[in-house]
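sry for the spam today, last one i promise. struct tokens for design, 209 residues
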């Protein structure tokens, strides 16, 4: 049974989709053992309570420094003893110490086809660039910003005249399905992380069986 821990900052739509997938058996051999939020009274926290998932709230605003916050965040994450940590709309860049504590065990969903439009407001970046196709990417986190090994991607066509809000909703619909698929592959032990031929970066290979 794989122990999953989610990190969230907001409404938690991806988090809820994952909870539903675990409940239905779509994600096998998995249990959501906890949720950590950096804000009080989030939508993600409400979803966790509904599913009786333990919640640890670590309000960023209460800490005098970022280092103090991230120290407590790391201690809290370790206390759940997770096999996989899931970024579910967590709006903080995790520091190197956190990443190194869970190597190749932190997964994230990003609303663009990485390496295009990394960082914040990816949908707005896509809108302002005028792309005809965007999408979403599930990747393992590394010490860069949205630079970790790519697991899965899904392209989304952008209809002419779409607003930023419409682009966001089109991509979000695909995010839920793609994230669940990636977590399922992890829990089925089908993800292999290796170096590319030039030994310059890690890539993810998916086992065929």
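last one done:
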């Amino acid at each position: 049974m794989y122990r999953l821990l989610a990190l969230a900052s907001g409404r938690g739509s991806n988090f809820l989709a994952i909870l539903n997938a675990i409940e239905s058996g779509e994600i096998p051999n998995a249990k959501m053992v906890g949720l950590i939020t950096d804000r009080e009274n989030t939508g993600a926290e409400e979803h966790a309570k509904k599913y009786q998932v333990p919640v640890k709230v670590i309000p960023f605003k209460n800490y005098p420094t970022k280092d103090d916050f991230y120290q407590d965040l790391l201690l809290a994450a370790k206390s759940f003893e997770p096999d996989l940590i899931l970024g579910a709309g967590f709006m903080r860049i995790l520091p190197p110490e956190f990443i190194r504590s869970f190597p190749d065990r932190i997964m994230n969903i990003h609303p663009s086809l990485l390496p295009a439009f990394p960082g914040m407001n990816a949908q707005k970046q896509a809108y302002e660039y005028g792309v005809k196709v965007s999408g979403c990417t599930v990747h393992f986190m590394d010490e860069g910003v949205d630079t970790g090994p790519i697991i899965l991607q899904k392209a989304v066509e952008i209809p002419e005249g779409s607003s930023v809000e419409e682009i966001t909703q089109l991509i979000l619909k695909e995010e839920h399905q793609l994230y669940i698929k990636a977590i399922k592959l992890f829990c089925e032990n089908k993800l292999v992380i290796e170096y590319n031929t030039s030994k310059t970066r890690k890539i993810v290979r998916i086992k065929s069986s």
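Residues 164-187 form the longest helix (24 residues). ok im logging off now
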